[in-house]
Each structure stands twice: as C-alpha cells, then as structure tokens.
Amino acid sequence: MLSDVTTPHDLDDRFRETLAALGAPRRRRDPAGPVTDGAALTGAQALDLFDAQVTSRQLDLAARWLRSFGEGFYTIGSAGHESNALVAAVLRPTDPALLHYRSGAFYCVRSAQAAGFVPGGGVAPAGEAGGPVAERAAGPVAEPVEGPVGHGAAGPAIQAEGADRAVAPAGDGAEGPAADGADGPDGDGAEGVAVPDRDAAPATPGEDAPVQATPDGPGPSDAGPVAAGASDAAAAGASDDVAVAVQRPWPYAEAARDVLRGVVASSREPIAGGRHKVFGHPDLAVVPTTSTIASHLPRAVGMGLAIEGRRRLETRRAGGGVRLGEGDLPAAPWPPDSIVVCSFGDASINHASATAALNTAGWYDHTGLRIPVLFVCEDNGLGISVRSPQGWVETALRSRPGIRYFAADGSDPAQAYAAAGEAAEWVRRHRRPAVLHLRTVRLMGHAGADAETAYRSPAEIGADLERDPVAATARLLVEAGVASGEELVARYDDIGWRVRQVAEEVIGEPKLADAAEVVAPLAPRRPVRVARAVAEAGARAAGPGAAARAEAFGGKPPELAGPLTLAQSINAALTDGMLDHPEMAVFGEDVAAKGGVYGVTKGLRDRFGPARVFDTLLDETSVLGLGLGAGLAGMLPVPEIQYLAYLHNAEDQVRGEAATMRFFSQGAYRNPMVVRIAGLAYQEGFGGHFHNDNSVAVLRDVPGLVIAVPARPDDAAPMLRTCLASAAVDGSVCVFLEPIALYHTRDLYADGDGEWSAPYAEPGAWASAHVPIGRARVYGVGSAEDLTIITFGNGVRLSLRAAAALADEGVGTRVVDLRWLAPLPVADIIREASATGRVLVVDETRRSGGVGEGVIAALVDAGYVGAARRVAGVDSFVPLGPAARQVLVSEDAITQGARTLLAR
Ligand SMILES: Cc1ncc(C[n+]2csc(CCOP(=O)(O)OP(=O)(O)O)c2C)c(N)n1
C-alpha cells in the first residue's frame, strides 16, 4: 500500500518482491566482464557495490528498529541515495571527503577500500596500490550464519515484556514534534513497540532469540531486516537449522559497526564518540560534517586551495625557489594529487554557504588558481517537504562560472559509475572544481518522524520506488548474468542479519558517562607546552633565525624601532609568526596589496610573497572557510575579518564549524586558526554602528573558543604569539579581537606622553614576557587599596585615566585588564576583587549580553561578598558622529560609578 511506503517494513517487502521478480538471468556471464556493452563497471564490481548499497539500506532499517524501542537516536537514512557508493568507488580512499548525511553507501565503500578491499577485485595486499591505507582491518570473513528461521526465531534480541515497560514513546509524526530529523527528535511513527530487556543476554544465532513485539504481542512490525529476512525464508518453506546466509566475506562490517555505534550514541563510535551521529573517520579521510546543511562546503574549498597550494609550494621548493620563512612544512595529511569531495542535497544548493563555496571555487578558478574539489549534489528533489522547482537544480549547477558540470542518474548504475569516474578524473587531472549532479530519490521520508504522505502523493512516492538505486543495481546484475534475483535476496537477507547482529552488539556499549567525558576533546589546553613553544620560538628567532629575521625587518628589528603602537606591534608579531611558522598564512579582504584598512598587515606580502599573504574575495564565510580547510590541511591560517560587524554574517563558520571540529572528531581533526578581527567602538570621526560594533556576545558562549582582546602594544605581541602557539600546539580556535580605536593611539594621559606605545620585546625576552591564555594584567594606581576596576580593550585606557583622576581624590585603584574574554581569567578576577572588596566592572560592550555579565557571574559563583557595580554600553547600536558618546562608556561614567561605589 502506497500509504505505508514510508515504513521500513513496507520498503523491505517491496524490495524483496522486486528482487524476487527479477528471476534468473537468461544466461550466466563472467563477472569480470563489463555489466553492459562498453561499460566501465564490471559485474564483480557491481556485485560488491550492491553489497555496500544493501548494507547501507539495512543500516537504515536497523536505525529505525533501534529507534522503535528507544535505543537509537538518529533515523535520517540514506535510502534512495545509495548510488553514492558509485562515487566512492571512483575515488581514492585517501581523497578527503566531507559527506552529506545520506552517505551510508559511500561510507561503506570507503571503509572497505581503506582496508584494502577493491570492489570487484578482492583484497589488495597491504602496501600495494589499492592496499590498506590504515590499520583498519578488512571486514571479517563471516561465519556461516545458521539459525532458526521464521518470525518467531530469527528476530532480534527483543524481549516481549509486560505491558508496563513495553511501550516506547509513540509518535505518528502528526502529533509529535515536526522534526527535521537533523536537529530534532525523530520517532519512527511506530504505534508503540516493545523495549528490549537490556539485561537479557543477546541472542546468538541458533538460539531461541526473542522476537520483536508490538504491544499486542509478538509478531511482525515495521521492524526491519532480520524479521523480514526470516519471513522470506519462512515463505520459502525453510525449516529449522537451514542456513539462511551465504558464506562469504562482508567487507562492510566495520562500516556497519561505525554507523550503528553512531546511531546508538556509543562512546566507542570512532569519530564523535557518541557526541553526534556523523560520517567520519580519520583513517578513511572522512571529515565529519555538522547537521547545518552546506556549512561544510566553504571548508571543502579551503581544503582544495590548501592541497593545491602546498603542492605548488613543494614543487617550487624542489626547484630551489625557497622564500623567506619557508622552512619545512608539517606532514600533509593527504597525498598531493588528492581531490576533495563534498556532498550535499539539492535543497542545500540554495543556502548562502553553498553559493559562497561554489562562487569562491569559481572565483579562484577564474583567477587561474586551481581548486581540486568535486562537489556532489545528491538531488532527490526535496528539502524535507519543499520541492526543488523542476529543472532548477540543473539550471543552477550548470550556470556556475568556473565549475564544470557532470550529470549522473543513480538509478542507472552503469551510467552513474561512468559519469562519476569521468568527473573525478577531470578534477584530478585538471585540479579544477566540478560538480556532479547525482539524481537520487528519497525513500522512507526525510527521517523517522517524517510522515511524508502529508505532503507527497502516493503516485510521487511510488515513482521514487521505481527508481530505487539498489533495485536498479540488482536489475543490472541479473541482466548482466551475474546473479539471479533469488541470490540477491539471499545476499540482502544475509547482510540484514549481520547488520542486526551488530546492532544488537552495540546496544550494550557504554555511552558518554559524565560532563567531563563529554567535553574532554572540546578544547584541551596544555599551557606549559604552549609556553615552551613560545620560548623555543624566541630562541630560534634569536639564534638560527636571526638572519632571516633581520632580512624580513629590513635590517631593523622592531625591538630597535622604539616604542610601537598596537598596530605596529601586531604587524611585527605577525612577521615574527610568519618567520617561525612556515605553515602560517595571512589572508582576508584587503590584507595583502593594501596591507589592511588600518595598515596592520602592511609589508607582509612583500616579505613573504603572495602564496602566504593574499587578498581574498569579499565574502566572510569564504574567508573563514578557507581558514578551516587550510587548518585541516596542516596549515596555520590567520584569516582577517575586516570589522567585527561583518563577522556576524559568517559567524556559523566559527561557531558551527571551527569550534565543533575537535568535539565531533575527538580531536582526530583540528582546525588551528587565529581569526584576527578589527572591532569595538570609539573610533573618533568614523563609523556608525558597523565600524564601531561593540558586541561580542555571539562569540562568548562558543564552547572552547579563545577570545583575546589586547589593549596595549606590549600585550598585543605576546598575546598573538600565545594564540599562534596554542593553535599550533593544541589546535585551538582563537579570535584575536583588535580594538580599532587603539591601533594608532600613542598617548594615555596627555598629548605627547607616549604612554600608550611600548617597545617590542626582543626574542630573548619572549619567554619571560609570555602571556598565558586566561591570565589578566593588573595596574596599581595610587595605593591600589580602595577599588578594583575590571575591564578590557578601550575600557583599560579609559579606566586608567579615570583611576588617575580618582588618585587625585585620594582613591587608590587597581585596574584589571582581563585580556582574555574567553576563558575569563577567573582566578585573577576573584583575587583582585577580594583585595579591595569594591568592584567596578567597566564593560564597553552592551549591558545585555555583555562581558560584564560574565564577570559579575564569576564573582557570584566564587562567593564574592563585597560591593559591585557595572558601567556598560547602552543596549543600542552605535550611532554616527558625536551621538556615539551617548551610548558608550565614558571616563565620567567610570568616575561616577566609582564614587557611588565608594560612598557605600
Ligand atoms: C542551515 C540549516 N537550515 C535548516 C536545516 C534543517 N534541515 C535539515 S535537512 C533539511 C533539508 C535538506 O534538504 P536537501 O539539501 O535537499 O537534502 P536531503 O535531505 O533532501 O537529502 C533541512 C531544511 C538544517 N539542518 N540546516
């Protein structure tokens, strides 16, 4: 019944019927030959890829089965998209891949390939081309699977318990939350099913495994593969102890286990360790992607640019063309002739991140720079319930400048294999971007909770079933004389049984047990190693690197240049960073030729060349994406966002992509990055809100993110060195927020006093001048006994001036410069607050959501019992001209706040 086609049970029944109806081939042919005349795909390859597709299908069914009794937590499946197995088959297992969430079949093939299994060719010996790329063992050769057949016996270890514990949360998709599946809860629409007895020993084949039950008692349900597989055997009149499986290797066993561990949130899952259900594995060059559709595409472009950039760099260096600061690079994670593959759905091509990525790849191609990225758009015609307009996807993808278009039909495996092969080969040979428009269908709805009959007609759903890619491969195999329908059903059942066995095994695996375990991989910090790295950089700069350093600074190192401004200090520290980190690159809008809109990056391109210091196109999402990809490729990217206000339209690349990578990969992948952002207010005579944006709320709650705000030149350089070292050592994602208004400030109290400029530390002093992450700086004014002002950025200068005025009134103040907004220097805050018992928080960001809230909360949490007040920016955007003063913190407001506090 078409009204039921969204259920696993119905899909399973239909598939089985379709295969059975294929009958026997007219004549048997050699599987080593092409599947059709002239096809690149052989029968043996098609058979192995069929197994991968079936494994993926069975994983979908198993995921819904697990969900039906509350042991599975993710039901977005790959059903209908299994033609992506063909894409994996034309790639190398070392080609980095960022995958769509419907990539079960791709992942199976990639996993087997990495273990040395060549579809159609068996297992390649280790070390040979096509041999294993990792320790990952080839899938175990399966034991013969024997056991009782029929619903009652072959079912999974699901105990039909009493009604008191038998009902899992029911949801028919109509009453439950309208989950999009990616983010929300997803029931499978089952009417209520039995929960397993977790204490019961798992049934082993041959034992009397309890059967899945509906609340009405044991019997068939939407349950999935094993029950269904068994039903077929039963229908065939099989009796007890009849072997239901073919004895043969199953190269997709490891992949199946990985996926199912993800589904049950097992802490043994190989990439996210139970933190999310993602496709990823460091040994398979599969980089995890998030649920935010298309957000991985800017990163993919960055990876492509970095791979090609490294390749060119190494070619040039091999020819003797070494530039200043170009030492040995860390080992590249991927071979130099790799291509990057990234896949996504058809609705996702409309997303700003996707258009950004496709545009950026095309833009670079237009400039002559090579970006070897294969974009794969898996087009099932739907984004949850919204249809892609007829012809839109092809029109949109064909019309991308600089992106070569290839088309493949997933329901025609021979054609799809050939087209995918052509596309991958084209990208590899030309090192240029291409898109493969892979037509797919979507079976079983968007996710488990999605009742697609609410928005799709039975005819439409039925048409998709006709184009089932796995059935299409089966048809091809029978037509090619490689297998009969019956044999393929047997393979399907055999794999279903094995998948279900694995599912049962992973149910009992441990979950993440406490908060410490959850956050362990998020952003580990090793401050001693970071300090050592800074000291070593200093030693190198003073010793073996001295000549290069002298050359870079034109014979006049910055420590001999007299007092520097904030901008000059950052420029010098960037130069020193580029000298010490050959893998470092500085890029952004206007950073190279112009040297930045405030001159902070002036001269860097002349010193280090356009390969390492370059202007990007005007798109912050892409600027950050380039950084994310470069970091993953072993570089140390230092992208610049021209103004804080413009971070906001690209913020997800920091929050959703950069900051989550370690978390969702348990540190297997990291994106070391120091994002320089010019920001905060008080620019005299320039701006309005967008050039004086004073909100950092969007950054402060990003877990693991480091936020540095240097106020003074003599802090800026050491803090930048710390960020670079922390990114290199710990893979930290750092935001280095530079107060624009202080860039060129020289004076503090009076014109010409030069108190806001400072000398640059010579390399021998870098170790002693080191500023660890999360350590504040304290200035004592007068007795420093009466009042503690806690502040940062422009607030430091304002507060020091206010403190001087207060000192004239006999008030002794200590001014604490936080320097780090994340992690906050909590120990310093508490110590300095307790020293006076009167705290004034001077916060140039806004009263609501501003930094001051965090400082006050830290004091409360620590049990601080003294007095506290806050002076903060007004909850407003910053207006143009003198009106800005109406909403920003002033010196007057600080002294007033202090007096009020002291009067208590
Ligand atoms: C940026 C973003 N917006 C919304 C969602 C919610 N969502 C999850 S999947 C999806 C539809 C994606 O459709 P498509 O790209 O065609 O992929 P398909 O699921 O059809 O394979 C939506 C809207 C999301 N995950 N990310």
UniProtKB/TrEMBL annotation:
Its cofactor is: thiamine diphosphate
Q: List, as start-end ranges, the regions of compositional bias called Low complexity.
A: 166-182, 215-232
Task: Tell me where on the tree of life, at the top rank, the source sits.
Answer: Bacteria
What Gene3D superfamilies does the record tag this protein with? 3.40.50.920, 3.40.50.970
Stretches for region Disordered = 164-232
Keyword Hydrolase included in the entry's annotation: no
Q: Which reaction does it catalyse?
A: N(6)-[(R)-lipoyl]-L-lysyl-[protein] + 2-oxoglutarate + H(+) = N(6)-[(R)-S(8)-succinyldihydrolipoyl]-L-lysyl-[protein] + CO2
Task: Write down the SUPFAM superfamilies for this protein, in alphabetical order.
Answer: Thiamin diphosphate-binding fold (THDP-binding), TK C-terminal domain-like
Q: Which UniProt keywords apply?
A: Oxidoreductase, Thiamine pyrophosphate, Tricarboxylic acid cycle
Q: Name one Pfam family in it.
A: Transket_pyr
The record's InterPro entries line, in alphabetical order, gives: DH_E1 (IPR001017), THDP-binding (IPR029061), Transketo_C/PFOR_II (IPR009014), Transketolase-like_Pyr-bd (IPR005475), Transketolase_C (IPR033248)
Q: Where does the Transketolase-like pyrimidine-binding domain start and stop, copy by copy?
A: 564-745
The keyword Oxidoreductase belongs to this UniProt entry's keyword annotation: yes
Q: What is this protein called?
A: Thiamine pyrophosphate-dependent enzyme
